[in-house]
User: What shape does this take?
Amino acid sequence: YDNFKGAAALALDPASVCDPTDQNPADPASVVNHNIAGLPLLYASKWTGNFQAHHTLPLGNDLQLDTTLVAALRTSYFDSDDYDPFYGLQPTYWKFDARVQLGSTDGTWDVAVVGKNLTDKLTVGDALDFPLGVPRGMQWLDEGRSVSIEGSYHF
Assistant: This one.
């Protein structure tokens, strides 16, 4: 596995227990008056994680091909403070990135094609409901698919 390196990460958000210490309901800043125990935390997925694989392939003539693939998972989360399940709940999604680089084996130069969110998965980063009963809201989309070319030369 000298030419094939990988990495993985997984995280769990255990923030599900509220243990308030300020029990004075007369205090407007008291935890009792702002207790969200039992509600999911905004913008907090229960699970997030990614898997990464990297492979280096010597091509001869002092050339090598480096390939990196990344798969990122995020489980559902609320992105609106009113917990609306229609427009304020981002469903679970996967996003995939890749980088393919051709360069010299000594690292003097390289040219790469980089793709992010290759399946063009449209996700919402934030949502807002307009107040006062107006039946409208806004959603801010995360970045869609992007493809770029990189090059470097080291003196």
